[in-house]
Design a protein that fits this description.
The protein has three helices and no strands. It is an all-alpha fold.
């Protein structure tokens, strides 16, 4: 497996983990009190936005020609860091 493939697989695996957690949060939100739902929806929307950016970065890395994918990893890593931060914030909030 190439380094690019390893990098993409690592990103996809993390994205799958976050999507699983998000599904659990959605189930909790359905049972949540009315006053908590707006905050949940705000966090969820932000997480989905960042997730979509991360997915786009994965596609760019996968489709990059030659060694150009290595240049794209910086942007992908930055997007991933923002997503990780949003996930951790939401995780601490919704798993109280």
């Amino acid at each position: 497996m190439s380094k690019r493939d390893e990098y993409v697989e690592k990103m996809k695996s993390q994205l799958d983990n976050w999507n699983d957690a998000l599904s659990k949060w959605e189930a909790k939100a359905k049972e949540a009190q009315t006053q908590m739902r707006p905050e949940y929806e705000k966090q969820r929307a932000e997480f989905y936005r960042l997730r979509d950016q991360g997915s786009e970065q994965i596609k760019r890395v996968q489709s990059a020609a030659g060694d150009a994918w290595m240049d794209l990893t910086r942007g992908a890593d930055e997007a991933w860091a923002k997503m990780r931060e949003a996930f951790e914030k939401a995780h601490s909030h919704f798993n109280k």
